[in-house]
Write a structure and sequence with these properties.
The chain has about 375 residues and is of the alpha+beta class. Helix content is about 50%, strand content about 15%. It is elongated and about 70 Å long.
């Protein structure tokens, strides 16, 4: 059960499923990868790296050469056929990943498939104008879970491809030492960080959720490199970046950074992280329980869906408060509604800071926020 009745479907489902049918959480099963060299004749398709789709005509005018995979032979052949059809239709944009569901001869049969066409880093600087059309290109596929589950991590996988570009080299030595380990660890590095953070922090996760929503600076000490990256990725994924106005986010970051006593210190010296100067509220504590309860299934896709629902509810609360504030500019009863909403939503401390920043240049709304701050302050003292 998710907090505040915000129950949403957390597992993959096929369209047209029976209403009320009991659904089980998605299992991610095994994970797979394949890397191909992609060649097309000179003059065919768009210039590499221009962001447009390849216009390769039907037929054998391009080739996919297998560089590395952990798929069984039959399944790899099926995957290559699928990719060939996509390439024929011009459905692979350079540097932009896609997620679909594919049926292969593997135990899971139908899995989510992220695929992306890309070029080696700085290849355009190395290539001459005459050889641009024949510059080396690659197609990478990551397979696991379902289409719906993998779609939640598409942006993370796009970033993961960027790091693959830097390491990629057709020389066998580099392929063995850098590229293959990078390919085989895609699931652990791109999908599992949120799950690892939940398992590490448990009930203390509420403090991280609060820090992410309030843009409170966080400093991690005595942690290994992976744990530090995991915490950073969790905070970024849990923040409202891209969902609130950019100016609001920047102003909040500046305001919270200036309040040095609000900075959170996470000490990872022992088996359990110790947090100093951390804050929380009822909203974050309720959602923490949703994460901890979800940990029993061990499904990384479920954690990401809960995180998206968490942010969705926060945005809904912000929008409701803004609406009440507009009404309160002309109606004293609406002002009381604002106060009751802040008092009961469980996240009044954060919401009030966000709307205060957004309404800083609006005198009437700013006056309403000032009154609400006084009400909340008096309530907390009482």
């Amino acid at each position: 059960m998710l907090p505040d009745g915000d129950e949403r479907e957390l597992e993959s489902s096929e369209e047209g499923g029976a209403a009320g049918e009991e659904r089980r959480p998605e299992r991610h099963g095994s994970t797979y990868h394949s890397l191909y060299g992609y060649c097309r004749p000179c003059g065919q398709g768009a210039a590499p790296g221009d962001g447009s789709a390849a216009e390769t005509p039907p037929g054998d005018d391009f080739s996919l050469s297998l560089l590395d995979t952990n798929l069984p032979v039959e399944a790899e052949t099926e995957l290559r056929s699928f990719l060939a059809k996509r390439l024929t239709k011009g459905a692979l944009f350079e540097g932009m990943g896609n997620v679909v569901s594919v049926g292969l001869s593997i135990p899971e049969y139908k899995v989510g498939c992220y695929y992306c066409r890309f070029q080696q880093e700085n290849i355009l600087e190395m290539a001459t104008l005459e050889s641009d059309a024949n510059a080396p290109e690659y197609v990478v596929c990551f397979l696991g879970g379902s289409e719906k589950g993998l779609e939640l991590f598409r942006l993370e996988l796009d970033k993961y491809i960027q790091s693959l570009k830097i390491n990629l080299d057709l020389e066998q030595k580099t392929l063995e030492t850098s590229v293959k380990p990078h390919l085989s660890s895609w699931f652990e590095n791109a999908v599992c960080p949120i799950q690892r953070v939940v398992q590490l922090f448990q009930e203390k996760l509420a403090f991280l959720l609060h820090a992410a929503l309030s843009y409170t600076p966080v400093e991690v000490k005595n942690a290994d490199e992976r744990t530090e990256k995991d915490i950073s990725r969790f905070l970024a994924a849990a923040s409202l970046q891209g969902l609130v106005q950019q100016g609001t986010m920047t102003s909040l970051c500046i305001a919270m950074t200036e309040e040095q006593h609000k900075s959170i210190i996470i000490d990872c010296t022992g088996p359990q992280p110790q947090l100093h100067n951390a804050g929380s509220n009822r909203f974050c504590e309720d959602w923490m329980h949703a994460f901890v309860n979800g940990a029993e299934g061990g499904n990384p896709f479920l954690f990401r869906q809960i995180l998206e629902n968490f942010k969705l509810k926060a945005i809904q609360d912000i929008n409701n408060l803004k609406r009440f504030i507009r009404q309160a500019e002309m109606n004293h009863y609406a002002l009381f509604k604002c106060y009751m909403f802040l008092k009961n939503c469980g996240s009044g401390d954060i919401l009030l800071k966000i709307v205060k920043v957004e309404h800083a240049e609006m005198p009437e709304a700013r006056n309403v926020v000032t009154v609400l701050e006084e009400f909340m302050r008096e309530t907390s003292v009482a």
